[in-house]
Write a structure and sequence with these properties.
The protein is α+β, with helices and mostly antiparallel strands. The chain has a domain of 78 residues: Alpha-Beta Plaits. It has three helices and four strands, in the order E-H-E-H-E-H-E. The protein has a four-stranded antiparallel sheet. Helix 1 crosses helix 3.
Amino acid sequence: MESQYILFIIINDTKSFKQAKEKLKNIGITSYTVIDTMGATSLFDKDDIRYASFMPGIVNQENKQFNKTIFIALENEEKTVKVMDEVEKVLYSDGNHRGKGIMFTVPIYKSLGITNFNK
């Protein structure tokens, strides 16, 4: 049996998120989950001495970084790579890879409740 994958796409800005959703639709990806997320550094209180000493300059409660996380169940490695390549075109169309977000996959060895993987 060929491995299935979950693709996680974390996007830091609304414009790129909308473009990524449109790209997914255009390549036939119709089943996925979107959740609102926040990087862990946004959770640290600027007065929390334990973290402030390790991470000066990145603790900023007034300017929390929210993002969108998309996760997609995909049926095989080939489809997963294709989807990542297409989303990469949207997220990094300007050639700048910094601060836009990240993508990564996790193999699924066993699942319950997922009856239809994106094909």
